[in-house]
Amino acid sequence: MARTLFIASPEPMTGKPMVTVGLASFFDEKGMTVGLLRPIVRDRSTDAMLNIFNDGRFINAPAVGALTYEEYLADPESALESIVNTYRKLAKNVDVVLVSGSDFEGVAGFDEFEFNCRVSANIGAHMAVVLSAIDRTPQDIIDAGRLAVNTARQEYANISGVVITRTPKDQLNDYRHKIEKIPTYVIPEEPLLTAPRVVDIMNKMGAEMISGERFNLTREAESVLVCGMNSTHVLERLRDGQIVIAAADRPELLMTVAAAHAIEGSPNLAGIVLNGGFETPKRVLELIEKLVPDLPIMTVDTGTFETADLASRARGPVTLQTPRKLERAVEIVRNNIAPGAMEAILAAPDVPIVTPLMFQTDLLELAASNRKRIVLPEPDDDRILKAAGTIVRRGVADLILIGDEDDIRERAKELHVNLGETQIVSPTDPELLEKYATEFARLREKKGVTLEQAREKVQDVSYFGTMMVHMGDADGMVSGAAHTTAHTIVPSFQTIKTKPGTSIVSSVFLMLMKDRVHVYGDCAVNLDPTAEELADIAISSAETAKQFGVEPRVAMISYSTGTSGSGPDVDKVREATEIVKQKAPELSVDGPLQFDASVDPTVAAKKLPDSPVAGKATVFIFPDLNTGNTTYKAVQRSSGAVAVGPVLQGLNKPVNDLSRGALVEDIINTVAITAVQAQQQKVDANE
Predict the structure, then answer these.
(1) Eight-class DSSP state of 218
(2) Helix, strand or coil for residue 669?
(3) Quick one: 359 exposed, middle or buried, by C-beta within 10 A (0-12, 13-18, 19+)?
(4) Could you tell me which of 605, 628, 615, 636 has the C-alpha nearest to residue 555?
(5) 436-463: burial string, b at 16+ Cβ within 10 Å, e else
(6) Residue 369, SS3?
(7) 3-state secondary structure of 509
(8) What are the beta bridge partners of residue 611?
(9) pLDDT, tens digit (0-9, with 9 covering 90-100), for 287-322
């Protein structure tokens, strides 16, 4: 994936577009392809930043807007997921993604900066916070910066720099203080970059153009002069790029200003506004048109104060139609943000944050990268059909549904679910029924199962689906939405059985914390495992963690840490830890450990300072089902963690159980997990 820098502001009008364009030019100059993402825009077709990038004027790379404000309002709950998916598609095709945060243009009561921080965290970006020094003291900036940094950290955004724009040129060093030890860069005030175009002022005032060339309306108006004085003093105050406001009944002022503009070497004005609604003498206008035929001259009905106020409130963004601004933006950013800062971001390690959305998105992409056949034996449950529709649409897996095809497709149609070409198999299919019954009878022959009994047994959808997996007609199975855990996993024990070298089938929950993923086992299957079984659960759980991108550091949980306690329960955990070290010497494991010592570095430093696991555990093995199940539910409910599972481990082929209260999202995740397990099982089989 591309390196990603998120440029965001906690307020409007900070010069964020200038910073974005300037940074983009740096990466472009290094020969890197640069893409732009705008998470929320007012209008994709008129967004200035999108147009600048897609035009190729500076960066020959794609630029996309994920959502408009209207689309966000229509479905706020899925907005973040939509933005992340758009980002990932872009990031696959470029070296660097610059994300320019939203511009505070549209949603009352919507904390845009907080939302931008959340987006940054969920795409694993480095973030630059942009603040404006206009009307702020250095202490004001420090206070504003601290507030922004704290907000970002609460959302787990990784801030790599603070950029302070529009700083008085004679006070740059006064503002150059680090905020919360974060590198700070100061950019001086540059009137050109915030200056509106003449047309922007004209539109703001509702003025009518009565003379001049229209192409000059795109010129920047760098300042405004109100002529409320005699001609001599007006001449003293004329400047290049100025909009001059004069009463329409003062023809002598109009002539003076026009003459000054016409003389070579004098100030080159941007335009003249005649206010008050008075009629300017025709002869005067004819002379003006001959004297300055190119200079835009406009007329408005408003008084001097209102006209000046409207002109002063006009703003002009950096756009393709402001080439001087673009060039100056690149220059000023490059001159004030050291190249070393950008090099540091390119060289910095990936942001070590894994949010639930990041994990789930990675999971679905991993499953889709090598699609496996997953059988769902409960399509009479609407949740299964709804999940199947999403799985098919996103290409997560190739599904096999068990049941009557006409009934299933009719119900899917009623639910507006598109199953596409999904395979649907009847459990009474004569050929498959005989095939599976014969094999089941062979497997259970020593238990006295006859072929006739086997024919009856495998018509049960759980047994039928399990036999599909056992015989290679499917790569994995997910069930349990409408059946008990025993109904789901007992057929697996009877047919698929355990992996070589594994004495026990167990389970883990993938606990998706706000900024990381933990693995808890066993919380669903084994009531009171022995030390040997607990060791196997630990080794299996570490393997499962690795399958899903979690570096395993295994904590064997007990009510005692190290040698501080004794008793049968602690001794079991201590013995299990030693067995793990013997069977898997490469594994980072320690125990017994209390839960606080396993996760809190401060506690770990006091209780077990030399442990390779204490204070940084990622895999937590509980001594019994009571402890494990209680702990996972307590953490889930008290911290807001997302518990994904139970994920069964130790079987020769993947079968996973659903809670009967599973949500559609839970089913999708479990199918993806099963598919990834099937991928790994295939790899292991080929080694």
Answers:
(1) G
(2) helix
(3) buried
(4) 615
(5) bbebbbebbeeeebeeeebbebbeebbb
(6) helix
(7) strand
(8) none
(9) 888 888 899 999 999 998 999 888 888 877 777 667
